[in-house]
Design brief:
The chain is an alpha+beta fold and 449 residues long. The protein folds into three domains: 240 residues, FAD/NAD(P)-binding domain, CATH 3.50.50; 55 residues, no CATH class; 145 residues, 2-Layer Sandwich (D-Amino Acid Oxidase, Chain A, domain 2), CATH 3.30.9. The chain contains twelve helices and 23 strands. Strands 1, 2, 9, 10, 11, 12, 22 and 23 form an eight-stranded mixed sheet that branches. Strands 6-7-5-15 form a four-stranded mixed sheet. A hairpin with a 2-residue loop joins strand 20 and strand 21. The chain is globular.
């Protein structure tokens, strides 16, 4: 049921669009740092964490595979946030299951990539005892079902439940006074110096609600580009949506693999992840994902939610970045390859059998949870890093992809610190003793990205 707010509650200091793990984390920091800050958290669903924040691998990713120059923000946010999540999980008995990850090389040529990962792990702040380079025999001694030329073993990768994390922070933010406006989609936005008006339409009955705020944070995930474009910003960027699908692995084979098995990506310039075998927080094993091009952030089946939606998406402006991609033979070949593994579990199984030869299609009888990755592109192709775009009285977070959930506590603190540095929260009074400190979440320590 959509929330109906009294008229006097429709004006706020800050409005945050997006009830995923990033939007909730930003609302939490704001409510914790400022006693008198009125905050609205706007979400299209009636509950938080209904999309990407719950539809992911559920891994705390360590930053050994992140180039510290090209993906500096993602790497640093992931490294800092690991300890924040760990301490929170420990104090409040949230799901935290260290399992470790093997990133494997399938050829001698890919072994060279492992040497880069070793360097990046150190540069990104991981301790030397958290990772190890192994040859094929070293891998087989720990994971007998795995065939490879070598691997880097990241020992502190951890299974969690990001939906649980998001709801936990949301409860804290609500107790701090954050008002949840659920069940509404953003229809229009107008922005003036020092003021925003957000026009919302209820997904339940079509009713209209208007919220005014002194400052707006757009953390809408897959919808963030569309919202940014409504204000005439970031017109050089557009996005594409790729659904990732998994298959559950049945016993008696599933438990024969005890850690995550990832393979080195063959086409790093594209968001087509080579498939992997993952251990869920529930203990279940799954294989995937593919990357099926779909029409929207919420297309979990088929190509489109609505008739002809995929066509309108492909011809959405700006056209230049998409035209470049769709005249690229390699990209088109990968799109077709990914679609084949969507309609055929045999095709998906065959990809994983390259490094887990004993896996058989008979062990794959149920699909896992699908999620959608939302990738921003410009005239140079896929953008590797998160993007922050500032309006007159707003900030817009674009391309916040994996390992976004891992890095959410630190990255959200970074966004709030940017708002403070630019003077957008100068009229608010800081809380002398933030409650977050009791959980080991020190704001100033998290913001230096």
């Amino acid at each position: 049921m959509a929330v109906q707010l009294p008229q006097k509650q429709r004006e706020y200091d800050v409005a945050v669009i997006g009830g995923g793990i990033l939007g909730v984390s930003i609302a939490y920091w704001l409510s914790d740092l400022f006693d008198d800050c009125s905050i609205a958290l706007i979400e299209r669903e009636t509950k938080v964490a209904r999309h990407t924040s719950s539809r992911n691998t559920g891994m705390i990713h360590r930053p050994f595979y992140l180039n510290p120059e090209k993906k500096r923000i993602f790497a640093r946010a992931s490294q800092k946030s690991y300890y924040l999540w760990r301490d929170l999980a420990s104090k409040y008995s949230l799901t935290w299951k260290p399992v470790g990850t093997f990133e494997i090389a399938l050829s001698e040529e890919q072994v060279k990539t492992l040497d880069h990962y070793k360097e990046w792990a150190s540069q990104n702040g991981m301790n030397y005892n958290e990772f190890e380079i192994l040859d094929s025999n070293g891998v087989k001694s720990l994971e007998p079902q795995v065939k490879c030329a070598g691997a880097i073993f990241s020992k502190t990768d951890t299974c969690v439940d990001y939906g649980e994390f998001t709801n936990f922070l949301f409860d804290k933010a609500s107790k701090n006074g954050v008002k949840f406006v659920g069940g509404y989609e953003v229809e229009r936005i107008s922005e003036f110096e020092g003021k925003n008006n957000v026009h919302l339409r209820s997904r339940n009955d079509g009713s209209i609600l208007q919220i005014s705020s002194n400052y707006l944070v757009n953390a809408a995930g897959g919808g963030s580009i569309d919202i940014t474009h409504k204000l005439g910003l970031a017109k050089e960027y557009t996005d594409l949506h790729f659904r990732g699908e998994y298959w559950k692995v049945d016993e008696p084979f599933a438990s024969k693999v005890t850690r995550n098995i990832y393979s080195v990506a063959r086409f790093k310039e594209y968001p087509f992840l080579d498939p992997h075998l993952i251990v869920r927080a529930s203990g279940k094993r799954e294989i995937g994902p593919n990357a099926v091009l779909v029409s929207s952030p919420f297309t979990y089946k088929g190509l489109s939610e609505k008739r002809l939606q995929i066509i309108s998406k492909l011809f959405e402006r700006p056209l230049g970045p998409k035209l470049k991609l769709f005249t690229n033979e390699t990209f088109l070949s990968l799109v077709w390859h990914e679609w084949r593994s969507s309609i055929s579990k045999k095709a998906m199984c065959a990809r994983v059998k390259e490094f887990v030869p004993a896996l058989d299609v008979s062990y794959l009888n149920e699909r896992g949870l699908a999620g959608v990755r939302n990738s921003v592109i410009d005239n140079n192709g896929f953008v590797p890093e998160a993007i922050l775009v500032s309006g007159k009285s707003s900030i817009h977070i674009l391309n916040y992809n994996s390992p976004g959930a891992t890095g959410a506590p630190a990255f959200s603190a970074y966004v709030v610190s940017k708002m403070m540095d630019e003077g957008h929260l100068g009229n608010l009074k800081r809380t002398p003793n933030p409650r977050s400190q009791d959980d080991g979440w020190k704001f100033e320590d998290a913001t230096d990205l």
